[in-house]
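Readers of this paper often ask what the protein records in our data store actually look like. Such a record has a labelled line for the sequence and another for the backbone structure tokens. Nothing more is needed to write down the fold, since each code stands for a local backbone conformation. The record that follows is passed on verbatim for readers who wish to inspect the format.
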Amino acid sequence: MDATRITLLALDLFGSPGWSADKEIQRLYALSNHAGRHYRRIILSKRHGGQRLVLAPDYLLKTVQRNILKNVLSQFPLSSFATAYRQGRPIVSNAQPHCQQPQILKLDIENFFDSISWLQVWRVFSQTQLPRNVVTMLTWLCCYNDALPQGAPTSPAISNLVMRRFDECIGEWCQARGITYTRYCDDMTFSGHFNARQVKNKVCGLLAELGLSLNQRKSCLIAACKRQQVTGIVVNHKPQLAREARRALRQEVHLCQKYGVISHLSHRGELDPSGDLHAQATAYLYALQGRINWLLQINPEDEAFKQARVSVKRMLVAW
């Protein structure tokens, strides 16, 4: 049995489906040769206008990608400056270092996932001790149209690994100048006393080496006298959700308690009278609970939202 075959079987990419070794190898080659056929295209509306294409892998490809993530990609060390897609690292960990700073520079990478190439993904896998044929197969299994698909479970981890050298270079450059730097996916944040033009020029130069560029429309320098937000979290003092977002969330909980979930959803125009009312109400309450939990990740000692979480749990039990 050759090294490629032994390695592929050892990686257990299908999650022990009970197939023969020959069938498992045959299915892997078929899947890697035609991975593009196993995606569903989903168009999502962006919060501030425009659309985003998400490529959702089917069950078979998603299973393989999840096992690549668990058995291969999770073994790589990550840069400490990269804060997204890391177990046990909530989004507040990206905002916390930028609290109470004189200025914050926010930069965004243009078309982040689409701009990461097949070759860059191949180079990530080639850092392992896996046979060359296996490296190539894993790359095909994780790419779509020679790029990184937004929606595949492997893409976030691969993007962090592609950006690892960039993160270390810009991170060390910033540390030498007393600048705080973090990156959350395609959002880069810099804080402290610095010349913004100098930072942007340095970033542009390092990104160009990766074939990446800045989205100039999203570049933003914020002084301490204005609201400073980092990945949706206000950081002028301690990390906190914006006042209007907190108020809106409190009001939603209050209206559900006062008028009932169904009446509240109907008033918002979010209720389908011909559908399953119980399922709609339950789904809404779980989503509301998730938003409250997210806020409590940012500020765990917020008593008002601790109580709001208890109230939503009671409503879920009542349903």
Q: What stands out?
A: The mean pLDDT is 94.
